[in-house]
Structure to design on (170 residues):
C-alpha cells in the first residue's frame, strides 16, 4: 500500500465504533470503549487513525495507535490494523506518525506478548530492543510481557543496520 492510498490523521471520538470493531478482531482481551475514551481525553496522548483516502471509501478505518506520555517516556499502549489490511505498511505508517509527533529524540517503551512475533518484528524495525520481562503480565493467559525500549541510540543503531545489514550485530 503506498502512502497515497493511506491517510494518517488524529483519532477522534467518532472513530470509536470502528476502533472497537477492529479491536475485537485483533485481541483476545480487547480494550473497552471506556479505555479508549480515557486515552483520547488525555492531552498527553498521541492517538492516530489510518483511514482510506477520500476518493476510495472515505472515513473507513484501517488501523489505529494509542501512545501516552508518562513523565519523560512515551508508552505505546495499543496498535492494531484491520486483519484483511495487514502487511501493507499501515502499522509502520502509524508508528512513523507517533514518532514524528512525539519527536525522533524521545524515548518510547511498550509491552508485547512473546507469542506475537509479528509485532516484535515490527517494533525491532523501529529500533525497539528487548529490555526484560514482566512476569504474568497478561491476565487472560498468564503470559509474561516482553518489555521493549526505543531510545535515540537504539533507533540510530537500527537505522545503521538497515543500511548496512552485513555489519549487523545483536
Ligand atoms: N509476521 C511477521 N512479521 C510481521 C508481521 C507478521 N504477522 N506483521 C508485521 N511484521 C513485520 C514485518 O517485518 C513487516 O514488514 P514486511 O511486511 O515488509 O515483512 C513489518 O513488521 C511492517 O509491517 P506492517 O505492514 O507495517 O504491519 P501491519 O500493518 O500488518 O500491522 C500489527 C502489524 C502487529 C499491528 C498487526 O498484525 C495487528 O494488528 N496485530 C493484532 C494486534 C497486535 O498484536 N498489536 C500489537 C500488540 S503489542
Amino acid at each position: 500500500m503506498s502512502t497515497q492510498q493511506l491517510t494518517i490523521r488524529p483519532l477522534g471520538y467518532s472513530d470509536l465504533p470502528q476502533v472497537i470493531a477492529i479491536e475485537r478482531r485483533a485481541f483476545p482481551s480487547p480494550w473497552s470503549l471506556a479505555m479508549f475514551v480515557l486515552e483520547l481525553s488525555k492531552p498527553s496522548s498521541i492517538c492516530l487513525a489510518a483511514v482510506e483516502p477520500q476518493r476510495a471509501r472515505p472515513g473507513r478505518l484501517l488501523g489505529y495507535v494509542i501512545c501516552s506520555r508518562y513523565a519523560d517516556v512515551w508508552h505505546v499502549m495499543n496498535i492494531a490494523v484491520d486483519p484483511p489490511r495487514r502487511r501493507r505498511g499501515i502499522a509502520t505508517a502509524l508508528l512513523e506518525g507517533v514518532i514524528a509527533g512525539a519527536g525522533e529524540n524521545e524515548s518510547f517503551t511498550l509491552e508485547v506478548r512473546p507469542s506475537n512475533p509479528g509485532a516484535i518484528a515490527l517494533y525491532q524495525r523501529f529500533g525497539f530492543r528487548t529490555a526484560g520481562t514482566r512476569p504474568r503480565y497478561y491476565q487472560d493467559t498468564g503470559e509474561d510481557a516482553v518489555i521493549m525500549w526505543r531510545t535515540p541510540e537504539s533507533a540510530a543503531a537500527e537505522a545503521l543496520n538497515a543500511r548496512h545489514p552485513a555489519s549487523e550485530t545483536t
